[in-house]
Amino acid sequence: MKARKEPKPLESLAELKSYALWLLSNREYSQARMLTKLSGRCVDRDLVDACISELLESNYLSDERMTRSYVRMAVEKGSDGPMKVASKLMQKGVDRALIDEHLITDDEIWRENAANTLRRKFKSPATSHEERQKQARFLANRGFTMDQIRYALTSPSI
Fold first, then answer.
1. Helix 129-141 × helix 108-121 angle, to 10°
2. What average pLDDT does this structure show over 66-81?
3. Which fold has domain 13-61?
């Protein structure tokens, strides 16, 4: 088995910025996540901070844009509820106020996503109290709110 070669450390601002832009060309990153990525390739914290500052100034790096993008992707995917999406965003270092601004939990789309997720997992409606609890736990573990779970369990579409 071949040993994995360690990437070459980045030693200049130009190399660091080039690497950051390459990362951003694939997807959006939060400021905290980008700091982690760049720190893994460069030991000079001042250089990393300078690079992050340049990315922010030129609007290549934006927590707000990343949050909007991530929420939109999660809504389209439909398998995770708003509470799980918020948790994942916080793990990525996004500020709670920014998450609350972009993640509207009482939107009808979340209720429909909960019902669709339940329908995909369980082909028929619950016939007993135990099955209903099992389905509710499944949706709760996916990050849906109690209102969304109630809607999904009573939805005629399942």
1. 120
2. 93
3. Arc Repressor Mutant, subunit A (1.10.10)
